[in-house]
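SEQUENCE AND FOLD
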Amino acid sequence: MDGERIFSKWLRSRGGVIAACLAFAGLLAASFYLYRLPLLAVLYPSGLCTALGLLLLALDYARTARQHEAYLRLHAPAAARQSALPPPGTVEEADAAAVITRLRQELTNAEDAAQRRYDNMVEYYTLWAHQIKTPLAAMRLTLSGEDSPAARTLGVELARTERYVDMVMTYLRLDGAKGDYVFRETAVDPLVREAVKRFSGEFIAKHLKVEIVESGIVAVTDAKWLSFVLEQLLSNALKYTHTGGVRIWSPEPGKLSIGDSGIGIAPEDLPRIFERGYTGGSGRTDAHSSGIGLYLCRRVCGLLGVGLTATSAVGVGTTVTLDFTQRRPRIE
């Protein structure tokens, strides 16, 4: 089918030349006829010209087909930037090749400049994150000797600040973190308990209960990145829950659900909660909502090979489910 399409396009592109040749042949035949020349004198040169013309057309079609195949191979992104263009056969093709070469170089220069800017930004924020941890650690050390309502409140806010710093680093490292994953068989329940422990101050401050039902899930995953996802989901649950609490359980083998009794998510917002920067109606009630947390969870889960879905009802609560039964990453 592709060969027929190429031949059809080639025939249309050469239609003018073929029509002109046929017109010249007709004029030649008419001239011979008007001068009453012998028929063989007409047929012999006409046959030679036809054979030569068909040969030239066949060679031209073969060259066109080879160039088409070469350009098809350039459709791959890497090949389009690195592979050599097919040798031009006409002045127009040579001009087009020169333009493509120049555009290639401009694209390469622009990408190199963008990569340098990105690397500089990551370097700056990485340095900032490491520097900000020093005063945060000092504040935590200072608060460790205090046991008052104000100290507990400051401890909760300090933990939230530390999570925001971790979120910044995760956001910056996502695109270049493919080599930062270590997949091993990991028990999920200890990660859940550790994540809940980090939020113990907020559960106490908001008088919320937490129920953990052992799931027994053992998944091939990266413990560090999965812990980040669990903490983000718990952070969201706590942010929008004012009464009741949070329940963590396994609704079916290989799946882990985190449900809350919070304000819930409107049906029109639910399909978009994993989009970057989308806050929806619930987010607009919280001035501190950025719409980044669930987006990062979706990105990380995609890299871990873990499914991520959410159900919700306004005024009832939200349940987010992690599905570990999807494709399994290779153990490294």
